[in-house]
Amino acid sequence: MSYIAERMSRIDASGIRKVFALADKMKNPINLSIGQPDYDVDEVCKEVAINAIKSGFNSYTQTWGIEELREAVQEYYQTKFGVKISNVMITCGVTGGLLLALLATVNPEDEVLLIDPYFVMYKHLVNLLGGKPVLIDTYPDFHLTAERIESAITEKTKILILNSPSNPAGIVISEEDLVKIAELAKKHKLLIISDEIYESLYYEGKPCTIVGKYDQVLLLNGFSKNAAMTGWRIGYAAGPEDIIQQMNTLQQYTFVCAPSFAQKAAVQALKTDMTEKVNAYRRKRDLIYEGLKDNFNVVKPKGAFYIFPEAPGGDGDEFVKKAIENNILIIPGSVFSERKTHFRISYAATDETIKRGVEALNKLAKQF
Q: Cα separation of 251 and 137, whole Å?
């Protein structure tokens, strides 16, 4: 007799976490695997958190979060994008928000559209809940269009998950395409879940959002990528009142509330000027793209801090295996895709690490 629930057979251990664990055992690896900022939480945010702890702000908060942060999130979207968001709740990171969102909306056999390549959690969480992930192939340019989406819609399609800028390819969905996608979603009465965790890391053009273009959009965002609060587990959701209410009820029975001190610090983080950090990542993006483009088939990313080259020889799993044998830590594309032709690099690293990685990867490419 097994005590393990049947649903656990629908998900695999994270391939990314396996590489993270491997990194701990290697001596001075060229680590281009970790999807977290290479800078620390700003000192002013640390001070707010420390002061909150010292002043005794250490108890549970309301399940939906402190009013100060919920209002600050609304003001942030109004100022940056000119859109009004409502029904804001504070979540335990974007992943916590994603789990609550899918728990509240996915029934067995519901079809959920995902962009291929996709962030690893999307597919596995949909499977865990008995839904059916439907993959929209965007190779080789990773350009998501309304036409590509519409070809995947059936009578069972309920949700479309967007991620722009994206993990793993760093692709940005343009304002023009977002308008067409919103029109398509309205036509087919789809719920859009928009994961905007990388919205502060745009390198070309004006940042844009699908929020405000369609009334059935559930926004997810947080502070792990812009404010480097990866371990603080702080995010937010906003959208249709009926869905947010159900997510809030679920949070009462799961996470209870987001960390209290982190909520206070997040208010400050929303006021932080990201210009210097964005400029630094744009330079890192250029450094790695220019360094790889002559030996790899690669699309230039426009946001986030990832690049998704095609593996020489077309077998990303084999290429990553050889890379790890050569002390280079990268992630196989099969972790994020139904294909195994590519691999993911995170350039959230020092310039020195990026330069070492470019040299080593180009050398390895010539062996294939």
A: 33
Q: Where are the beta strands (DSSP E) in the chain?
A: 30-31, 89-91, 111-116, 132-137, 157-163, 191-195, 217-222, 235-238, 306-307, 328-329, 331-332, 343-346
The model's confidence at residue 1, banded by pLDDT at 50, 70 and 90, is: confident
Q: What is the DSSP string of 31-59?
A: E----S-SSPPPHHHHHHHHHHHHTT--S
pLDDT at position 12 is 78
Q: Which residues pair with 346 in a beta bridge?
A: 306
Closest CA to 32 of 341, 291, 306: 306
- Which class for 113: exposed (0-12), middle (13-18), buried (19 or more C-beta within 10 A)? buried
User: What is the chain's mean pLDDT, rounded?
Assistant: 95
Q: Tens digit of pLDDT for each residue in 22-55?
A: 666 777 899 999 889 999 999 999 999 999 999 9
Longest CA–CA span in the chain (Å) reads 59
Q: How many CB atoms lie within 10 A of CB 40?
A: 11
pTM, full prediction: 0.95
- Give the residues across from 332 on adjacent strands: 343
Over residues 68-80, mean pLDDT: 98
- CATH 3.40.640.10 residue ranges in the chain? 43-269
Amino acid symbol at 184 = L
Rounded Cα gap, residues 336 and 115, in angstroms: 10
Give pLDDT tens digits for 92-125.
999 999 999 999 999 999 999 999 999 999 999 9
User: Where does 9-41+274-365 sit in CATH, by number?
Assistant: 3.90.1150.10
Element at 94 (helix H, strand E): helix 93-105
Structure tokens at 220: 């997810």
Check: CATH 3.30.499.10 for 43-269? Answer: no
Cis preceding linkage at 207, omega within 30? no
- For residue 324, give the DSSP letter: H
Whether the pLDDT of residue 15 is over 60: the answer is no
